[in-house]
User: What shape does this take?
Amino acid sequence: MTIDTELYRKIRWLFNEGHSKRRIARMLNCSRKTVKKYCRGEVLHGSKQTPIQPEPPMPLSLESEILKMLQEDKEMPRKQRRSAKAIWLELKKKGFQIGESTTRRYVHDLIMKYPEAFVPLHFEPGEAMQVDWGDMKAWIDGVNTPVSAFVTILPYSYGMHSSVFPDKQNAAFFTGHVNAFEFYGGVPKRCIYDNLRSAVASGSGTTAVKQEEFMKLEAHYCFKSDFCNAAAGWEKGGIENAVAILRRIAFTPMPRVKDFAELQRHVDACCLEYIETHKIRYRSNSIKAMLSEERKYLSPLPLTPMDTAKTLTALVGSDLTVLFEGTRYSVPLKYVGERVTLKVSPFTLAIWHKGEELHTHNKALKKGDHQYVTDHYLELMSRKPRSLMNAAPIKKGIMPDEFKEFLKHCRTEDKEAQLMQTMLLARTVAPDDLLWAVEKAVQSGSPTYQLVTFFLGISTGETEIKPCIKIEHHDLKEYDRLVRGDKEHE
Assistant: This one.
């Protein structure tokens, strides 16, 4: 029975004055059962009492099995740990008769029963730099592009820096270090990592085995490396926060840039603004002030920066290219069949032969984006004119914008041949003069090889080349008579 507040008040009042339950029931005209229920204030008025059913204890064998799985998962990276559903499926395979929801509850209870404790950390100025990768997205040249952000932080001052790359390969990993050291103006005593594959060949934590190239970086910049235990995020909490901060200040909303160089300038500006304007809670000074202090404790940079490019050899094929990671990069004709050296950086691929640099390409951002330099193929195409119409080095080749505009606006049927002849002029004409002449020809609306040579003849002071235009002259005496107003024929 549910009673109103006034009746409840009267029952409690009369009972406390010493009246019996029978008398109270008679005075208030209600049942003795109601008086008995509410007189002592045992039941809170207006609340619905739900009988509490005690949960049966977890079987010891089941608790032991779940704890074993949770302990195993502590040695795994966080993203590779088993979910409650995965634990439930394994329990079923082992013959345990248990529901998924019950398993979830048991897993939660055991995690709460055995929480992981952390030790607060303190760093001295110049002592350490924490390092990690962050996965971001940006609009680059109108394309939604994945970005690998190499993020570093000095945990004493919270000075943050980031270099952005198209991938996480070793060249990017090492270049990120060099950029960070140069930004901070020195090198900390040790760098802390989360067992990154770019640095660790095998093992983790204290058993990590370093890669040979990483050991060279470590020796040249004179720092020690520490590798966190698996999934021990608390050992590098500062860098975990820094990646989140970078995502918020530089990649939200997604930046729109022309290329990675512009994106790097954007990220640099955001990191500098963060350092200039922020102060970490519970610290007496700003990030800017503490970073300025910390720089005094960093070890000096080596006199010569480390060359972080990856070096390998390749054979030049009959199509004038070398193949690297599914993409072809061209070289001049005379090196066909030669073995060359590739120096691969995060954004460039330089091709060398016997100490001579043949060409430096922009590194393709996706597999199959072949880098054909049109100039490398000119002599070959002049010997094989039938290839011109469908030649990839012309249709998708790398050439100055002036030549692309020439091909776009040329109206002759043999426009590919016209372009090839025009580009061959670079063998004997200064590049700036040639590009100027091509631009002037394009401005005419119908550029041709002959028109380019015409403009070159004027600009270089050579024998004047007159355009083939026949001008018909008329007698102007009649015009003069009309101007004077003569009326002799009227």
Summary: The domain at 310-371 is CATH 2.40.50 (OB fold (Dihydrolipoamide Acetyltransferase, E2P)). Confidence is low (pLDDT under 50) at residues 230-235, 459-471.
